[in-house]
Amino acid sequence: MPEAPAPHHTRTIRDANGLAAAGLVPRDAVPGLEAVQARYSIAVTPAMAALIDPADPADPIAAQYIPRTEELVTAPHEVLDPTADEPFTPLPGVVHRYPDRALLKPLLACPVYCRFCFRREVVGPDGGLLTEAALEAALAWFERTPAVREVILTGGDPLILSPRRLGAILARLAAIPHVEILRIHSRVPVADPARVTAALAEALAVEKPLYLCVHANHAREFSPDAATALRRLTQAGVVLLGQSVLLRGVNDSAEALEDLFRAMLRHRVKPYYLHQLDHAPGTARFEVPPEEGRALLRQLRHRVTGLAWPNYVQERPGGAGKVPLGPVWEVG
Ligand code: SF4
To answer: Which residues does the record list as N6-(pyridoxal phosphate)lysine (modified residue) (predicted)?
Structure first.
């Protein structure tokens, strides 16, 4: 019997009904998931929906984006704002935690909403687009803060801004003499590769070095469309780094991590960070203990090139920054 064609989605799915209509959750799950969607945003792009095998209850792409009712349960150790940006926010949209670098968050919307997101309490489709005045104030802060050598655009996802708007922000930052490098953190190249148009690539082709940290957690996210998007970015002179989160049910095996890091390298993405899960509310199902993470990385030793090796790090509570989690080896 011929296989049924995969459902083709042309618009981002943004609610429980849409997930059911696309066959990604059963109809009778809708009422429970509507309670989740009232608290945490849902978004599954056509690109990601197309990668999901609805017949596989353990599908690693579905695990990242399809909501579950247990998200409404907050474990005792989970905290509302794991990154604690607030005390380091001199003005809206700016986070200055370390002397030589600062974050600029031009918006808080993303192409997809990851169920394990550490900023899940603040990200959402209507969220946090800086007004022209607030953006101007933020850019002026960078201009008058000479200690800052690196500007990190994050959010939300800066690559969902229009190329015109993003290009204007980057050009302004690149023109600041003391700003040496620019960095953007984004899920767009894998989660919504159609957004990486020639116009967007052109907006990213600035004079200063631009590092793009591509957030990806599973090798299957590197679809042919993602490959095209990443190629376009490297051709624009963008340096690609990979960042991932160690996630139960997504990449919690040596094989899955090996495949992920190899997929990154094949697409000119250097694995940079593997994050330990932050304790955001309702994310307990993704937790992999650090001991297990270290053991997984030890298994990768000798199996993969050193180029595939990320820094395995944990964000310390209260905004104290990242610490490496190892693994360490006895040398003698
Ligand atoms: S793209 Fe990043 S900020 Fe947005 S929901 Fe996913 S993890 Fe959170």
So the answer is: 322
| Complete DSSP assignment for 158-192 | GGGS-HHHHHHHHHHHHTSTT--EEEEEESHHHHS
Q: How far is the CA of 14 from the centre of ligand 1 (A)?
A: 15
- For residue 213, say whether it is annotated as part of any ligand binding site: no
The DSSP output letter for 52 is -
Contacts of 291 (CB under 8 A, 6+ apart): none
Report the pLDDT averaged over residues 252-275.
98
Q: How far apart are CA 74 and CA 54, in angstroms?
A: 27
Q: What token pair was written down for 308? A: 């595939």
pTM exceeds 0.85 for this model: yes
Q: Is there a binding annotation on residue 117? A: yes
Which tokens sit at 163?
Answer: 């190329």
Q: Ligand 1 atom 6: the closest Cα is on which residue?
A: 114
| Strands ordered across the beta sheet of 269-275 | 94-98, 101-104, 150-153, 181-186, 210-215, 239-245, 269-275, 311-316, 321-326
> How do 311-316 and 321-326 pair as beta strands?
antiparallel
Which residue puts its alpha carbon closest to atom 3 of ligand 1?
Answer: 156
Structural domains of the chain, with CATH: 16-72 (no CATH), 86-326 (3.20.20.70)
114 assigned binding-site residue: yes
